[in-house]
Design a protein that fits this description.
Two copies of one chain form a homodimer. Chain A is α+β, with helices and mostly antiparallel strands. In chain A, about 50% of the residues lie in helices and about 20% in strands. At the A-B interface, α3, α4 and α5 of A face α3, α4 and α5 of B. Chain A binds a DNA duplex (30 and 30 nucleotides) through α8.
DNA sequence: AACAGAACCTGACAAAAATCATATTTTTAG
DNA sequence: CTAAAAATATGATTTTTGTCAGGTTCTGTT
């Protein structure tokens, strides 16, 4: 089991790779592996986290409930990403909820191990810092997109993003299948508007659908739309 | 001069407070102080930064130009905040432009000093990390606001934010005076829409204006609007 | 003081997006 | 397999927001 974890961590989780052998051992010894079914909650907004969750398999949506009762999905976290890191570091309760989008396997690592390593191993801290700097840049970009692009542009962008980050199956459909509602919540629009635009894209031949599955049919057209042509 | 810097840094810049005496000395020796006039550019989006800027006085807007030619203001940085930190840490070019909103005094600290300290002083790295974790949380909140709140709500929120973070003068006007265009760019809307809503708020007696100055007249009403009542 | 230029303001209209209502299809549970 | 529930789809309508076009006021300069 330990060797398996060793392998898993080194390969997939970029911050943890800066840990020493002893520190990794500690992680291996204290971590617990959990299986989370599609739709199940990993943690809720406002929860006090006493550790982080390292995603081994599957995808989680990180979202925040707004006053009007809608969920805004801020990030989709996949294999290798760590959930709850920010909360543990800032010693704040979770700002976002984490829910499994499909069946997942996650490793729970107690915060003591993380915090300890942060205090003792500057390389690890620096590595985490670099990751967070990157996340922050992405968040800033999302803010600009949200306020300056139309819903159509954002939906087109979402499909391109999903294709790029989660791939396509052999039939050309996006590997990660989200419900229309989830897509709407990523993009920050009403579910009906989202569905309407999906229909429009399909009619124009830019995407293809089969049930809830969506495939990119004309990448260039989608790209042009995003760029504002 | 050195003693002055010592004082300044320790008091105002939370990450730098974790530096050792020697490290602070190094900062004092290598830093240069610059005066930036209102409207002047500190650095531009895409620029390679070879240091960070610590704000001693005045306010800077951090913004990003979108494809449609509009500037989205992502953050207003004031006394004690550090600009360019993220870029230096991630070794990326600047993602945002920094422009002075009023006359400023900033200290430029070469990146070598910062990066060196990051590698050698875990307390400092941890401190920077905590700050960035906090910034990331704020950025996530902004994303949710942008997508889930109406322009009216966002403008009301902006006034409350400006009042809370920059204060009011003795006549009850917001200390930080932004142009209508800047307010629109903070909120992510068209300048005309922004002006229209300001007129509406004034007509309702929720705010008062005098030239470009704006004052909060009915905090509760603004708050209620933000909360969705 | 007169002027230019910028910032501010307002109206009219067009476009985008949300909402409400109601089908239709797909999925799930018994 | 089938009924119920959930998700998807579409139409009609309203609300919100953006755009264009034309004003007015403010500000700094000569």
């Amino acid at each position: 089991m330990t060797s398996k974890c060793d392998q898993c961590i080194i390969r997939k989780f970029n911050s943890l790779r800066a840990m020493s052998k002893e520190e990794l051992k500690k992680v291996s010894d204290t971590k617990t592996t959990k299986f989370v079914k599609k739709g199940e909650i990993i943690f809720n907004e406002g929860a006090k986290l006493n550790g982080v969750y390292c995603v081994r398999n599957g995808v989680s949506k990180l979202s925040k409930l707004s006053a009007n009762g809608k969920d805004q999905i801020v990030k989709l976290a996949t294999k290798g990403e760590v959930l709850g890191q920010r909360s543990v570091i800032a010693e704040e309760s979770a700002n976002l909820s984490a829910v499994a989008v499909n069946d997942m396997e996650v490793c729970f690592i107690p915060k003591e191990v993380i915090v300890n390593t942060l205090h003792k191993n500057p390389d690890f801290t620096y590595e985490v810092l670099r990751h967070m700097a990157h996340d922050l840049r992405e968040a800033d970009d999302v803010v600009v997109n949200m306020s300056q692009k139309t819903v159509k542009q954002r939906i087109a962008e979402a499909f391109l993003y999903l294709g790029k980050n989660f791939g396509e199956d052999d039939e050309g459909f996006l590997t990660l299948t989200l419900s229309r509602e989830d897509i709407a919540n990523v993009v920050g629009t009403a579910t009906e508007s989202c569905i309407r635009i999906i229909s429009e894209f399909k009619k124009k031949g830019w995407i293809k659908t089969s049930g809830k599955r969506i495939g990119i049919a004309d990448k260039k057209k989608l790209n042009d739309l995003v760029e504002g042509f």
